[in-house]
């Protein structure tokens, strides 16, 4: 493409680089990414394994802890409930680098849990990601409980339901909200960089996750590896959403 700057005789001509060069570069990167995935590149799949392991562990911990806390926050009336809800909602916007800094301080040698040896390990990253996902699970579970039909509890009590049956029935009614909380939390956990970089140290073959690997490989100019890891991240996200859709369909039948 040729453009002119200025007017009249003072116009200056320059040639702008064609967009096709960028498209060819992207296509070549995708082709190399497919080759890396199909040939079983060890470095690529090491980052995938670290991501799946850490994300799975942190999501399991956040759901086990967060669902009961979210249920209690949304179901029971107690002193200071509004203040607690405000704190939980505020923690939804907690920066990942700040969480990474706090976890690093606690797990470092000079910290209170330094002797546990969890710094620069997958377990340490999972702890940080659990802290990241926990407010999401609590807030969305509480919101789902608050959206329940007001007549549900009196109706169940009239039918002779005990406390355990009240709890299970209420959880069943908000099952879609809990699934939404799990999907939202997993999306933020899998795509975070700050915690994995600060607590895990981005150690090759050990604590390097997909997102930290993408950032590092892109800075090195290894765009094929970055694109490959990005495609894997999209595949994992698609698989998670597909599983959630299947669970929703089964729950409706």
Summarize the structure.
By secondary structure, this protein is mainly α. 73% of the residues lie in helices and 3% in strands.
Write the layout of secondary structure elements.
Elements: E1 2-5, E2 12-15, H1 19-38, H2 42-75, H3 81-91, H4 96-107, H5 122-146, H6 152-158, H7 163-173, H8 175-191, H9 194-200, H10 210-220, H11 223-252
Helix pairs in contact: 1-11, 2-5, 2-8, 3-5, 4-5, 4-9, 5-8, 5-9, 8-11, 10-11
Main sheet: strands, sense, barrel: 2 strands, antiparallel
- Strands of the largest sheet, in order across it? 1-2
CATH fold type: MetI-like fold
Instruction: Tell me the count of domains.
Output: 1
CA radius of gyration is 24 Å
Unreliable residue runs: 1-6, 8-16
Mean of all residue-level pLDDT scores: 83
Q: Would you give an account of this structure?
A:
With 253 residues, the protein is mainly α. It has a single domain, classed as MetI-like (MetI-like fold). It is 73% helix and 3% strand. It is built from eleven helices and two strands, in the order ββααααααααααα. The protein has a two-stranded antiparallel sheet with strand order 1-2. β1 and β2 form a beta hairpin.
Key phrases:
single chain; 253 residues; mainly alpha; MetI-like fold; two-stranded antiparallel ribbon; 11 helices; globular
